[in-house]
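Whiteboard transcription, Tuesday session. T.W. wrote the structure tokens on the left side:
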């Protein structure tokens, strides 16, 4: 049981880190667009 729970937790962490990464990329793009305008 604990092993299964650990697997889902690691998947959640990976998913959250991916979401954070994409959010950062979007923010950076917007910031660059604002700087260039």
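and on the right, the sequence the group agreed on:
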């Amino acid at each position: 049981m604990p092993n299964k729970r650990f697997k889902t937790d690691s998947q959640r962490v990976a998913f959250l880190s991916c979401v954070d990464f994409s959010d950062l990329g979007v923010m950076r793009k917007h910031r660059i667009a604002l700087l260039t305008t």
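Someone added at the bottom: The mean pLDDT is 76.
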